[in-house]
Every structure is written in C-alpha cells, then in structure tokens.
Design goal:
With 282 residues, the protein is an all-alpha fold. 70% of the residues lie in helices and 0% in strands. The protein has 2 domains: 191 residues, no CATH class; 68 residues, no CATH class.
Length: 282
C-alpha cells in the first residue's frame, strides 16, 4: 500500500490520502473477511459455533497469559491512536495554517519522537530507547526505496513508454478483462514471490501500459497493489501464512485447497473494485 501510494505520487502526481485509501480498502476488506468466514467455517473447516468447555478454558488460559493492559501499553496506544486519527483526517488538518505542510511521513515522525520522549511507567527512561532501532527491518525500508528508484528510472529512461508501446496489442482487450488478467497474474505470482518485490516490479509496467492504451493508471495499478496482498495458498507466501501453518493444525494440501478458493474470491473482488470504484475515488 505504501509503495503504491508513493509510486502514484512520484510518477503521476496523484496524492492518495489514508482516508481516500480507506474508502476503497475498508469495503473491500469487509467483503473479503465475510467471504473468508463463510468459506472457511461452512465448507473447508465446518465448525459448531457452540464452544466446548475445553475451548473456553483454552481461551481463558491464553487471555490470562497475556496479563493486564500495562500503563506503557496504554500510552503507546494513545500515541498510535492519535497518529491514525491524524493520517485519516490529514486533509482537514491541512486547512489549519500551521499544519498546512503536514504529511503522512511527518505524522509518523512526530509519533516516533513522542514514543522516544514519553516516560515509561514501569522502567527507568522513556517508552522506547534508540538501541531498539537495531531491531527495525531496515532491509525492508531499503527495498521500498529501491523499488521507488526502479520505478523512477523506468519512467525517466523511457523504458516505461517502450513497454507500454510493446503491449499496445492489448488495447483491443476490454478493460475489465485486462484488470481480471492483472489481478489473476499478481495473486498467483505473489504466492511464491515477495509482495513488496512483486508490487515494485509490476507497478511501473502496468502504469505504462495503462497510459499507452488510454485508460487511467489507477485502473491497472490498483489491482496490482490489492492483488499482491491476496496470497492465501502457501505458507511461504506471507509471514502470517507461515505463522498459521506453524500451528500444525492442518496440512499444506488443506491450506492450498482453502487458499485457492480464497484467491478466486480475491480475483473477483479486486477486479470489481478496481474497475468500478477505484477511478471514482482516485
């Protein structure tokens, strides 16, 4: 999502606020959540919604092991909540004179500074010490930057135009079928490749194709971004998949069967939202 937002801003000058993205993402996520719930609980793993005593006791034990909500956790929650509020309503905050230049990155930096400056209630010092920064996924940040640099080079070197012209044969394909093909390609490709790598690689390609065939760039870049987050079949597709598979509650075959059905739902939902709603919002 961050890569997509930065790509649209740098390449086409289209600023996508968190509120704009939520207008598209929240309904889509809600439909996917409902579809996953029905599919998994009714067909793949049929369950009885009357919890057994063993299940209740297991949940109570897990909640007990989590402990109480500490003061430090409350303070972190307040800072994070304020940051989310500022992200969602940044366009309104920008109407205030001294906040006119506030950006999403600026909000994140302010939140980080507050975490470093807010005293801890349970230990000496602040909520977070700089030494903890070594645990940040710096490689992921470099990957983001590398992807944006790659997109900029594709655009400035003329490669994007060449790619778009090479794919002009696709201009005869109805846009909705082209979006369907893009969503299908990305969803199944991201099962075996990094989501970020897939997004940074294909955004400039399909952005150039959109310009070449005369459609809005968001019509083909939005399905790339959304589809890259719909990897449900394999444990290696995403860290959450690996964590769930690590519970040893099911086999890879079962995960692939359920994930394939979810992928099909994802392809259809992404296609509909990218074709009908994305151009209206962005």
């Amino acid at each position: 999502n961050i890569v997509f937002s930065a790509f649209m801003q740098d390449t086409y000058g289209v600023e996508i606020s968190m509120f704009d993205w939520m207008m598209l993402g929240v309904p889509l996520a809600s439909i996917m959540l409902f579809g996953a719930w029905v599919l998994l609980t009714k067909y793949v793993f049929p369950i009885n919604f009357v919890a057994s005593n063993e299940a209740r006791n297991e949940l109570k034990t897990m909640l007990s092991n989590m402990g109480d909500f500490t003061k430090d956790e409350k303070r972190i929650s307040v800072i994070f909540g304020l940051a989310v509020f500022a992200w969602v309503f940044r366009s309104l905050l920008n109407n205030i004179d001294f906040l006119a230049g506030l950006t999403d990155a600026g909000i994140a930096i302010i939140a980080a500074i507050l975490i470093f400056m807010t005293p801890s209630a349970t230990k000496k010092g602040d909520l977070l010490h700089w030494e903890k920064s070594k645990d940040l996924p710096w490689g992921l940040l470099i990957l983001f930057g590398g992807g944006l640099s790659l997109a900029a080079q594709i655009s400035s070197s003329g490669l994007g135009i060449w790619i778009g012209n090479s794919l002009l044969i696709l201009s005869t394909v109805p846009p909705i079928l082209l979006i369907l093909a893009v969503a299908t390609l990305i969803i199944f490709l991201t099962e075996i490749t990094s989501n970020v790598t897939t997004t940074t690689t294909f955004l400039p390609v399909f952005g150039a194709l959109a310009i070449a065939i005369g459609v809005l760039p968001v019509s083909l870049t939005v399905p790339v971004c959304l589809a890259a987050s719909c990897a449900f079949m394999l444990p290696v597709a995403t860290p959450p998949n690996a964590i769930v598979y690590g519970s040893n509650k099911f086999t890879i075959a079962t995960m692939m069967r359920a994930g394939f059905a979810l992928n099909i739902i994802g392809i259809l939902v992404v296609t509909i939202f990218a074709y009908y709603f994305a151009p209206l919002i962005f």
